[in-house]
Amino acid sequence: MNVVLRDVDASDADFLLELYRETRKGEMASWGWGQEQEDSFLRLQYNARQQSYAAQFPGARDSIILTDDEMTGRMLVAELAEEFRLVDIAILPRSQGKGIGTMMIQRLLESAIGLGKSVRLHVGVLNPARELYARLGFQTIQENGGNFLMEFVAGSRTSGLKD
User: Fold this and answer.
1) pTM of the predicted model, to two decimals?
2) Backbone Cα Rg of the chain
3) Between 13-29 and 35-56, two packed helices, what is the crossing angle to 10 degrees?
4) Residues of 9-19 as b/e, b for ≥16 C-beta within 10 angstroms?
5) Domains and CATH numbers, the chain
6) Distance from CA of residue 135 to its chain's centroid?
7) Cβ neighbours around 24 below 10 Å, total
8) Helix runs in 57-128, H state only
């Protein structure tokens, strides 16, 4: 499996919206809305999230995850003075469980270790990805409402990284 990143460009807008929609399907199904109402809501929420990311992390690298030349996800990373911030990582449901997200995060952690930086991310309390982050060596450092701030510190437990 060949997994690489490439920078997002304007032609990726439809894929990014579809990725957002696909990763929210389970949640949306429980609301009982019609397709038109769901589409409208998700588009508004997606656009607001994009604007928020751009305002909070203006220099972040926004990348498409390609698996064997197929678009399978997105990774948004901001390199700050003392840390990398994993702002967003999302994998299409049909591509989840294949190690793609793990591989992308491990590469980020390796970069951070090489530069002596930490990696931080926010994750929802109920998000099953928390288990992956913990396995890779992230520690919860703060709880804020329904989210945890997690951190991986270079030189800390790295047993989740492959040699």
Assistant:
1) 0.90
2) 16
3) 120
4) eeebeebbbeb
5) 3-152 (3.40.630.30)
6) 16
7) 16
8) 100-115
